[in-house]
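Recall that a protein's primary structure is simply its ordered list of amino acids. Everything else, from secondary elements to tertiary packing, is in principle encoded there. The following example makes that idea concrete.
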Amino acid sequence: MTLDKAKPGQKCRILALPGRGIRAQTIRFGISEGQVITCANVIPGGPVIVTKKRQEIAIGRGLAKKIKIEPVPAIEHCKSFSRGQVYGLSR
């Protein structure tokens, strides 16, 4: 699946950034392979708005069509936290 097919509110993992030029562009935005981003909005005929750590980034439709992603279930996104970390408890 590519980023231009993402739905608003969907969390996605960046799988591939094909080509040096595309990789250079996305690194300037602070996005690299393996990172999880959230699709904030998809403007019809326009850019895809993604969020990463409270930062919103507008990615042009042409670039979004080249970025390969996979949807990330909400449970998997939070998997790295243990119950104690979520509630601020120490063990």
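Helices lie at 20-29, 61-64, 74-77, 83-87. The two ends are 40 Å apart (CA to CA).
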